[in-house]
Specification:
Blueprint lengths: L8 H26 L5 H18 L4 E7 L2 E4 L2 E2 L1 H6 L1 H9 L2 E7 L4 H16 L6 H7 L5 E5 L2 H5 L10 H20 L7 H17 L7 H4 L5 H20 L3 H13 L20 H8 L1 H10 L6 H9 L17 H14 L13 H10 L7 H11 L7 E4 L4 E6 L9 E3 L23 E3 L14 E5 L3 H9 L2 H4 L5
Antiparallel strand pairs: 1-2, 1-4, 2-3, 4-5, 6-7, 6-10, 7-8, 8-9
Amino acid sequence: MARRVRRSRADNKRWEQMAAALRLMNFAFNNVRLYPLAHAEVVSVLDKLVETLAPIFEELEDVGFGFMDDLLYIEGSMSLEETANNQMLVDRFARCRVKYLTLMKGVTRQDLAAFFQILNAEANKPSAVPPAQQLSDKGVTSIHIVEAEVDDQASRSKLGRKKTLLDWHAKAIAVLASVRDQFQAGAQADLKPLYHLVDDMTATIRGKGYEPYLLLPYMARDADPHLAHAVNVGVLSCALGHLHGLNSGQINTLCAAAFLHDLGRLTIPLEWTTNHDPLTVEEREIARQHTDWGFLLLTRHAEVSPQTALLAAVHHDAPVAAREDGGYSADVFHKILHLADVYDLALSGERRYWKQSRRDRVLKRLLRRSGRPYEPAQLKLLTSCVGYYPPGTMVRLSDGQRGIVVRPNPCNAGRPKVFLFEAPGVVPPPAADGTPQEEQPAIADLEELAEGGLGFKVSVEAVLDLPAERLAAVLESKKEFLLAHTL
């Protein structure tokens, strides 16, 4: 099922331009395979591709295409028609393990020629050097490739285990744990695995959507709370950055900062996360100092930008748009990171360490503080992202059924999709070859209209409490379906 995305007339025009670019890329792959780079057919199609991309670059800094699960994704929506029309393109990228492709403003015909030449050679005979590295060696900086991992390819086989986002979450925790341990040991931490993780996440979110990621905090219950918090903030920052309209490079920078923003918490005992007794004055001072420690640790690393280190120092400070003394002024990175951090920490405060509240209550408290200090535009962005009833919220519907919110609705914050865990499952019809389909859980789409179209079929009547252990167990029972991007 494709993601539903409401588009304006301008958005539809951009979609058509991007679809036209895909068709030209399909031709370019074939022409570069058949003719020398200086041949008129090659030059003509590459010039046409640059010409087609030009009006898009007047509005955007980059253009992204997803190539996942042998399907094409344009602007976050699956396009079955374009997949069928550009099958050579899909096949080439599948062979080269390309997951996401970003063409940036300033891309030239020469850059594109080098790109198509490298990918054609890679599709015929895989090289020991990844395509992204080959592009870098040729000095091409306007084309960015996110490569699928080898185990992602292996999982597509009939014998391979079907992977879920929980596998990704476990890997993210492991990568962050390794980075933290290296910093704690005083070593120059290897951040390449972390940057690759960020690249992979942002590519998937830009291609398939962020919605399933929002269930992870309720399903991955055994992880180190400090590390899990950093992952949650990274996911939410990526989603907010995507909705805000940041380009690929900006989103990657924001997400890397989000994953590292709480590195200073390695100075805080892990036992504090389970003990909710009020902190002493000394303990509160230790908790406050984690931002300073994070800044000091990150500034020692050669691969960490000063901006990322600064965000670690100020992420608990309320964003200030402008200062009369000409000092630090919050940028969009600080605003998004601060809001994501506050939302995931659930305004726990310093007196009781890590005592979280329900997400819907946190959102309401944030909305009541609109303008003091949170900008209305940022709160509107957060509301569009998570909805009035964030994923993981247990609700009672107007027809008496109970369920758990599993997907927000960016177009209507009060009408999410709800998993009716007490209702019988739905058995879809057999596949075309007669193979019986697996039973699927009952999902209520609250945007569904009643008969006659004069109102909605059901609505949220009340928000209920459900113990975290019980919630995790219910979601775990249907995790493969609930974490799928096709829900």
